[in-house]
Structure to design on (307 residues):
């Protein structure tokens, strides 16, 4: 079984920063990722609030830069999915679909995945008009009319991005005001290609071979109506990717891993960072901060355990 000083599970901004700090400290570091590096950054067309990029940067570009920087200092990368953890003894074991791996310190940076609406038709039309990534799929809807569900930064920013391709974007929000930051809200309200349906929820996604319409309900009046659309983009929050680490306690009722200010989970040598961690603000900059703190603390833990 391969043994490392540090294993980082997940290569989003938190995991990439942790791998950068850990490998730069001359610790043998493995970056474990089941998909593309970057995590949720890859679904964002433009990141405007990450320091050092005054003109903004695409999520895919920032992901590539972070990965290159981590690998530059010697971090190793392996594609595998984490299935479980064994945390007894001096070594922490990550069980993956490609074999077991051991480490002295473990940093869980597995992030979160888009939360589904849970309405009829969503699962049936996933990949046939239902999407969770505007950056990935916008080009398929050139000249079409689409709906975006949500009211936070991700929903509004990606709705604005979709207006570059579509004839009209309908933003469906269950409340009477957006949760997005003020500058993003102002852009949305001024955008001629974006229509906002307030106090509205999706009851059903309809179609035959592809999405053709959404059945909607106004939560204040109870009125139901249908809008014809060619696609539905869902941005109603995230679910933590913590299923493989059920041996960790405590976790929140929503499945987020609880930590202290040093990212420690309560099990010595085991840390959680980024979107998988229970926290107030989920941004690229706070994820990177988490990763730096965890890696620095992991280095201290390893050094002290060898004394």
């Amino acid at each position: 079984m391969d043994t490392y000083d540090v294993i980082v599970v997940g290569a989003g901004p938190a995991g990439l920063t942790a791998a950068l700090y850990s490998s730069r400290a001359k610790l043998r570091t493995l970056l474990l990722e089941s998909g593309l590096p970057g995590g949720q950054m890859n679904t964002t067309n433009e990141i405007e609030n990450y320091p050092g990029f005054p003109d903004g940067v695409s999520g895919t570009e920032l992901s590539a830069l972070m990965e290159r920087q981590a690998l530059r200092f010697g971090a190793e990368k392996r594609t595998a999915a984490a299935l479980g953890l064994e945390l007894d003894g001096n070594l922490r074991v990550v069980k993956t679909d490609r074999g077991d791996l051991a480490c002295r310190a473990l940093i869980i940076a597995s992030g979160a995945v888009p939360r589904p609406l849970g309405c009829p038709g969503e699962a049936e039309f996933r990949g046939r008009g239902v999407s969770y990534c505007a950056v990935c799929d916008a080009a398929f809807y050139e000249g079409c009319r689409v709906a975006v569900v949500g009211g936070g930064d991700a929903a509004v920013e990606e709705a604005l991005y979709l207006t570059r391709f579509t004839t009209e974007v309908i933003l469906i929000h269950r409340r009477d005001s957006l949760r997005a930051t003020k500058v993003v809200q102002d852009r949305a309200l001024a955008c001629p290609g974006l229509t906002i349906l307030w106090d509205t929820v999706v009851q059903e996604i309809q179609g035959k071979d592809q999405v053709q319409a959404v059945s909607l309900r106004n939560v204040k009046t109870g009125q139901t109506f249908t809008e014809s659309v060619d696609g539905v983009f869902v941005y109603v929050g995230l679910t933590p990717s913590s299923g493989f680490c059920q041996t960790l306690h405590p976790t929140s009722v929503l499945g987020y891993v609880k930590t202290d200010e040093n990212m420690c989970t309560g099990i010595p040598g085991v840390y959680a960072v980024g979107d998988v961690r229970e926290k107030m603000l989920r941004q690229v900059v706070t994820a990177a901060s988490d990763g730096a703190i965890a890696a620095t603390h992991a280095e201290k833990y390893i050094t002290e355990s060898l004394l």
